[in-house]
Automatic annotation (TrEMBL), chains A, B, C:
It comes from Pseudothauera nasutitermitis. Belongs to the transferase hexapeptide repeat family. LpxD subfamily. HAMAP family: LpxD. This is UDP-3-O-acylglucosamine N-acyltransferase. Pathway: Bacterial outer membrane biogenesis; LPS lipid A biosynthesis. Keywords: Acyltransferase, Lipid A biosynthesis, Lipid biosynthesis, Lipid metabolism, Repeat, Transferase. GO terms for biological process: lipid A biosynthetic process. Catalyzes the N-acylation of UDP-3-O-acylglucosamine using 3-hydroxyacyl-ACP as the acyl donor. Is involved in the biosynthesis of lipid A, a phosphorylated glycolipid that anchors the lipopolysaccharide to the outer membrane of the cell. GO terms for molecular function: N-acyltransferase activity; UDP-3-O-[(3R)-3-hydroxyacyl]-glucosamine N-acyltransferase activity. It is an enzyme of class 2 (transferase). The keyword Acyltransferase applies. Residues 21-87 form the UDP-3-O-[3-hydroxymyristoyl] glucosamine N-acyltransferase non-repeat region domain. The keyword Acetylation does not apply. GO terms for cellular component: membrane. The gene is lpxD. The lineage of its organism: Bacteria, Pseudomonadati, Pseudomonadota, Betaproteobacteria, Rhodocyclales.
Amino acid sequence: MFRLDELVARLGGELIGDPAVRVGRIATLDTGGEGDLAFLANRKYASRLKDCRASAVILAPDARESTVLPRIVTADPYVYFARVAQLFNPPVLPPAGLHPGATVMADVPPSVSIAPGAVVEAGALIGEGAVIGPGCHVGRDAHIGAHSVLHANVSIYHGCRIGARCILHAGVVIGADGFGFARERDGRWVKIPQTGRVLVGDDVEIGANTTIDRGALDDTVIGEGAKLDNQIQIAHNVRIGAHTAIAGCVGIAGSTVIGARCMIGGQAGIIGHLSIADDVVVSAGTLVTKSIARAGVYTASLPVQSHPEWVRNFAHLRHLDAMADRIRALEQRLDKADPAE
Amino acid sequence: MFRLDELVARLGGELIGDPAVRVGRIATLDTGGEGDLAFLANRKYASRLKDCRASAVILAPDARESTVLPRIVTADPYVYFARVAQLFNPPVLPPAGLHPGATVMADVPPSVSIAPGAVVEAGALIGEGAVIGPGCHVGRDAHIGAHSVLHANVSIYHGCRIGARCILHAGVVIGADGFGFARERDGRWVKIPQTGRVLVGDDVEIGANTTIDRGALDDTVIGEGAKLDNQIQIAHNVRIGAHTAIAGCVGIAGSTVIGARCMIGGQAGIIGHLSIADDVVVSAGTLVTKSIARAGVYTASLPVQSHPEWVRNFAHLRHLDAMADRIRALEQRLDKADPAE
Amino acid sequence: MFRLDELVARLGGELIGDPAVRVGRIATLDTGGEGDLAFLANRKYASRLKDCRASAVILAPDARESTVLPRIVTADPYVYFARVAQLFNPPVLPPAGLHPGATVMADVPPSVSIAPGAVVEAGALIGEGAVIGPGCHVGRDAHIGAHSVLHANVSIYHGCRIGARCILHAGVVIGADGFGFARERDGRWVKIPQTGRVLVGDDVEIGANTTIDRGALDDTVIGEGAKLDNQIQIAHNVRIGAHTAIAGCVGIAGSTVIGARCMIGGQAGIIGHLSIADDVVVSAGTLVTKSIARAGVYTASLPVQSHPEWVRNFAHLRHLDAMADRIRALEQRLDKADPAE
């Protein structure tokens, strides 16, 4: 439990009301009770303040007088909520040290935790306080930055570098070979060795079973602060800018460069060799087939219909060109019939 | 090998013909031979009965006289076939006991099988007869129900609960952090601790490399009897109803609620915060962007075309609004020309 | 470092210039320097030859006189580049032998390398020189062909067969149960045992976290030389022809048969029970819902638009049938007005 004045001393904000009130859990305006700190991040829920039973509330300056509850006023209540939630729910990390069931062929600092079943190859560098989960493999000469956490069964191929304070969820694969082959005349494929690395910046989070391939000649690069959800596929030589967030199931093909602070919706796809500007938002399910030079929101998806409606409407998609011709023909006939128009 | 009268005694159905006939394998009408039990699940294949060489056949009441072979008559031959196939092919489970290569920090019943390389953390509860495969990680305080089977390299995060008789295929990840961040004004992301759990009901099957994230505050819930195929991504706080089946590569975004007995086709996507009614069918590849309030089949996908046809037709998709305007203009011109129409 | 005459002796091609020149790295025309071998695979970059500082160049017969640098002339410079790159970058394999941290219940040849944390079940057959990475599971009676490499945390279910010289990247799952259930009248699912296997031919590469399900009765088959990228899902009883290449995130539903030398673009989907001819190319993001009988390129995807344009244009997709009706009505009105047309 934290006193409100402690919270403000640590995290900033203006405190209104009894500084000795103690809170220890985050809650919504509806569910909060004794000991809970609720938050109003969106003005449209302000009416819920009047029935709120939480011990205190986080809110924005324009809502400061909307309640008589003890409150913390801050420019961005949602970010403040996130910081308080971190304070209330610190990560539970395993104890430092190498479990006897781990196989560690490199020198690691005593502050590192390596779980049973993990394998760390020769030449790997593991930063202070890093956590290597059960069943993880850290390949030869790979680097794991200080205080980064690898959950269970993460695979880091040789030579790849993970920054500091990263979180890699279970099943992540970093540095598998990019999909690079030369094609012989008879259709057989000749493998092109993938000799680049994957470089992951500081403060990156990577979701469960996401895969990031190593570069062919140059490196694949994930900028600092980027957040990747689950089951994303990042191909060789892709570069992703700082603080870009990518939702689940997205695929990004080879050599595409994505700017900083972009947001890519779930199941979106971006084909290879494109350039996407900073601050671009791609909607869920959208396949991007051309470079995007300017910030903005971009979309390509279909409206869902009941199956019979879809059958009726979408049959015409095969004949759009003919429809356009028929419209043009109608215009010409009318023009001829009435040239004055 | 089973006698036909044994099968009927165990699984029901009406037996016509020699009860002493013995069968031990399932086969199709075309491939069945001596010792095989074939089945007719779809009337349109009834003509194949006349050349069928299987020792016996499962069929529906309306086909009872379509063959002279020994036969089991049942209301639903396909379900009957599935039950017989289970009888003929019981799962081969590893022996009970803890392999010395496993790391088990919890008390587990002697009937449990834990493979080498598996790690079970303190506080975990493992039900009678459960199987924990090689390389699996069962986090602290996680529960695995009786007779559930975790294949190789499954990761269960702390506190998550798996029901009884579940099957989790290799590479499944249950309970990784949901994708939750607050955004600062400069675009940096602040992680929101994900303090909910994943609750998986009884008799759920989860395919290889599928991921189900833990809830942010509340739990993510998979209803009993649900069947999930491979490489599905279920985001935080999703709730999936009982007996819903989801095909491979589907993504379901955060907080969406899906009803009971739904069927979601492969590569479909459902965006966040939606509500999908019971008994809804979503076709393969369909992106659902609005809640669906009534049972039925829903579709949104494009017809495949040869590339040149696609180029010709789909250029017009950028100009549908202009096409609609031109049709309206034509109608107005004609109305003016012929006001009597 | 290799002398140019050594390269030509091993890999063929015509050498023009000093045979004693030594090269040891592959580079592009722009970045190559002393000791580098550059390549011109596409005539449109020929102008870059004049500033190229590499020690030698690989090029096609029609470019043989485009530079005075030492050069290797070959019919297909890109394939030649791939072979030289393989020579310059031989795979670094772990030493042969069974690590004490591995659990091996089968007899394996001394040339095999098995890493810590790997589990090889009874009855498994491992070919000469094969590499089983850390955390891999090779199920009972599974076969791994000679010189195949399983990277970390690969799961091979019982009875599946992997050919010779295959590469399976981290997190691959081969032989999990196909998604097969019979549905009871009340919506419950009854599991159909999946008793087929997965058969993977020689020289197949399978990308990280790709999953290939075992067949229901018959086998799932991946033809020799096929190349599969990351996060692909192949359902039960699919058959994929030799030398077919499939990009990341593709899903192929049950029982579909794909020909030889096909190329399937990223995030494409192919529904079940289809037949795709040899030499078919499917564009990225395309959902294939009908069989394809002839070689060619097939596409179905939407043009990306800025979000406001998309809203304006795509609203009409729900009303295409009505638009078609209105065009027909206009044509009839004009025909009536001017029957001579």
